[in-house]
Amino acid sequence: MGASAAAGAVALAVVWTAAAQPALPPMCSGLDRSDGRGHFVARADLLRTEAAGGEALLALVNRSPAGALPPDWAPDDLVDLETGRPARWYRCTPPRKQCMRREAAAAYRAMAAAMREAGHRPIATSAFRAYRVQCSTFDRWVRRGEFCEATTVSALPGHSQHQLGTTVDLFTRAWVDGGDKFRPGYGCSDGGRWLEAHAHEHGFVLPYPLHPDYRRGACGAVPGGEERIDPRTGYRYEPWHLRYVGRAAALRFREAWQASGPGSPGEITLEQWLRREHGLRDAVAAPVCDGCNCDRCATFAEGDDAPCERPAITLDASGAPRAAAGSPRLEEARLVREDGALWLEARVQVPQNTLTQPPIVTPASGARFRRGRREAQLADRAPRAFPPLEGAWRLAIGFGEPRHGWPWRAALVRPERPGNDNGVQGRIPAAPGVVQLRVSMEGVSPGTLMRVGLVNGAAVTDARRLTAP
After folding, report:
1. pLDDT digits (tens, 9 = 90+) for 424-461
2. pLDDT of residue 10
3. Sign of CA dihedral 190, 196, 201, 203
4. Cα separation, 232 vs 125, whole angstroms
């Protein structure tokens, strides 16, 4: 158990009374109280459940403050996964009884039959999970390790796709008999390969794939790749987690996925596709503030009610980021050469709620710019460009006269921020306050005339000239 367990793995519980048909439980008790290390979720975020339309097969349920289902929501058409007989939500507690919505369960049985014909023995280990069950599920992950680690492998209560009744964790007997079912490698097993190739034919999608940056070969991962958080989804790779969206929607998603360039930096996941289907302009949404991600989270809470003293984004009643209290200001910029390497050092005053976007070009990210290339050079990843997004501010770097443009742009984040968000093109929170930026540049000769400024779309402010030493 991790060091935080004794000081406080969050003990989550729900209070409910047994009856012929008990009332659905309130939210998890304990989740809104600090575990002693600053980990908790503000009541404003626990009570704000925007994804109430859980009956829709394409409901958007994710890690964001607005991506949660209400504690009292459960499907009214649940059936036993194996028999198809109607079942009440409170009887559907994995592993004793596996349930899914009627349509999803029928599709699962057809898919399971196809798997058996292909020589696999499918095992559904977790299908529908009520809010109260997700409370205990999340708590178990916390007790296995540490709160922040748990949030990357288990959804906070209300944010789990399992509550939809259309999601199932599916393994094979051969895999389960080989050890811990959550061990790395399932995606490359015979059963995992079958699901990746055929699940969509039955209306199922794998929402949490392995990010292209973490892949090696046809299905393998770089060392530790399966443990890394995918910035497109906010979770680690889960090749066993399947969500039913209907055969027509699954085929549409498959076509969109293929068009996005599988294996390329632009490859999409179900999250990005659903956001398009819902008419949302951002490819990702900042996760709810829980004390683990204070440099990138969002919250409906105000002031001291949130776990982060300065939450990255404060949301208004509609779920949109509150307007920033002004525009960023470039206070200082200079070029320094150290051991032959050229660095741009800049100090920027960033108002609260300012949005930025990749690339994150910091010493911690290992990313840099190289003369003659417009895209960011990312450590151990394919170079990629990040076209401007509406409302996102970045540091801009150019050469010569303004007519030559601003080929290099860097996110307004702190130097210690790693570059995980470079794996997806989307607006992200800028670091509020005074931000010291340090950007690595290669191939720039001494005496080169350069320009530095702040850019939002096509508008550049605070531009100034510098000469490379």
Report:
1. 999 999 999 999 999 999 999 999 999 999 999 989 99
2. 43
3. positive
4. 25
Strand partners, 437: 346
Residue with tokens 């699940």: 199
List the one residue out of 42, 44, 60 whose CA is nearest residue 294: 42
Q: Would you say 176 and 186 are in contact if contact means Cβ atoms under 8 Å apart? A: no
260: DSSP letter: T
**Looking at 76-90, 213-227, 297-311, 452-466, which range is the least confident one?**
297-311
Residue 414 has a CB neighbour count (10 Å cut-off) of 17
* Residue 179 Rama label (left phi>0; alpha psi -120 to 50; beta): left
Query: Buried b vs exposed e over 90-114: b needs ≥16 C-beta within 10 Å?
Result: bebbbeeebbbbbbbbbbbbebbeb
For 272, the token pair is: 């990005």
Mean pLDDT of 11-20: 40
pLDDT band at 317 (very low <50, low <70, confident <90, very high): confident
Burial (Cβ within 10 Å: 0-12, 13-18, ≥19) of residue 19: exposed
Let me know if 281 is exposed, middle or buried by CB neighbors in 10 A (0-12, 13-18, 19+): exposed
For residue 144, give every residue at least 6 positions away whose Cβ sits within 8 Å of its Cβ, in sequence order, or none. 1, 150
Tokens of 94: 């994995």
Phi, psi angle pair for 174, to nearest 5°: -60, -40
